[in-house]
Amino acid sequence: MNDALCDESRLIKGPRSLPPVNAVLDAVRAALAEARAALLEGRGAATDPDALARRALVLIDRRESDPGRLRPVLNATGIVLHTGLGRAPWAEEAVERASAVARGFCNLEFELEEGERGRRTSGVVPLIRELTGAEAATVVNNNAAATVLALRALAAGREVVVSRGELIEIGGGFRLPEVFEVSGARLREVGTTNKTRLDDYRRALGPNTAALLRVHPSNYRIVGFTEQAPLPDLARLAHDHGLWMIDDIGSGTLAPGLPSGVDGEPTAAEGIAAGADVVLFSGDKLLGGPQCGVLAGAAPAIRRIEADPMMRALRVDKTTLAALEATLQLVRDGRGPDRLPVWRMIAAPLEELAARAEGLARAFRDLGLNASVVAAESQIGGGSAPVRPIPTRAVRVDPPFPPPHETERAWARALRLGGPPVVARIQAGAVLFDPRTLAVTDEPPLIEAVRIIGKID
């Protein structure tokens, strides 16, 4: 049967090029497997070679037109740094720079003037230093890697003192104590969940202590009857005892006002000014760049980190460095508010969002939908500013929904499976579209995606 199905005359008819042999074999096997399963379940199945060959052709066509697992989506959730949707969209300058180096060779570790080997981070380090005030800096593939590497390089086999109120769990269920275990450093918990004073850290110091660690709880807040030791006091205590001060700020605010509209988040510049030996933060959160983990701080700490063998395993590639450099240049030149999508979304004026929401609602009503503009809340997301929602205006679509999608969940699913996929918010029996996380250029394809799913007559 396989030989009959693989016969070229059955599979290739008309002006069509011959598919690769492995594609034909995979399609034939899949067609046969489908037929066997149907027969075993008592369902009728065509078993003649021509019918199976036609099914194999369908499977070949599906394979050749497969867009791949990762597809661009329209984010109408109002969550700016949506982890499930890839966090920060890049500035056009970052996209162009990364694309340029991806297409061919580049001077990743080569100094053009001297004609000798160079450092792959030589483009981004001066920018990080300028923007944060750090003596030195380096970059790895994400902030969790930065945390592991800093603990390993500065405190492997020794104790690191951290507040119980900062024993965080990050995305994917990874917990700080587990990060310690991987790094080889030993966790020394002090204080309580809501209160940890400087004396708690002081009493925990001993001959085996290597560092103090402050971790910003970027994805939750402890409020009310609370107290925490100020970073300058922690840094002074650490240095008085010959210890390292590590400050993990997570979400990646470079300095106050970068970006605007985000208050209460620690910044890299403030951490370094307060005396931290190394500050750790993400590149794809509030910085608005590619996924990476930045380590900035005192030269002795960074040299020790870069000398660790794990540095090579965690290093970033040329496209990440190119995109990060372009992002940092935009920030340095004062063009971040205009050019970085994340910064624009966070700072979008409410009146502008209201006007855009009204335009979308009008277009939806023209398609027969029950659409209105409502007050809502956007979220920064990505473990940033968790208790600081941003007022917004959203389009609310209430029942009835286009048949056969009778519920809000069915219609939202149809939108996700459409082209382009649209991810909206389901809330209280309705579907909400927040224009904050939609570019203006996203609006026509959004309206078309809604139209394709079906009008209500």
Topology at a glance:
Layout lengths: L1 H4 L2 H4 L9 H20 L8 H16 L9 E2 L3 E3 L10 H11 L7 E2 L4 E2 L7 H8 L3 E5 L2 H13 L3 E5 L12 H8 L2 E5 L4 E2 L1 H7 L4 E7 L11 E2 L2 H10 L3 E7 L17 H6 L4 E5 L10 E5 L1 H9 L2 H4 L4 H15 L3 H4 L1 H7 L2 H17 L3 E12 L8 E9 L9 H9 L5 E2 L1 E3 L2 E4 L9 H11 L4
Parallel strand pairs: 1-16, 2-14, 6-7, 6-9, 8-10, 9-11, 11-12
Antiparallel strand pairs: 3-4, 5-13, 12-13, 14-15, 15-18, 17-18
Helix pairs in contact: 3-4, 5-14, 6-14, 7-8, 7-12
Q: How much beta, percentage-wise? A: 15-25%
What spatial form do the alpha-carbon principal axes imply? globular
When the domains are counted, the total is: 3
Q: Quote the average pLDDT.
A: 90
Given as residue ranges, the uncertain stretches (5+ residues, pLDDT < 50) are none
By CATH reckoning, the class of the largest domain would read Alpha Beta
Helix/strand class: alpha/beta
Family: Belongs to the SelA family.
GO biological process, one term: conversion of seryl-tRNAsec to selenocys-tRNAsec
Pfam family, one: SelA
Subcellular location: Cytoplasm
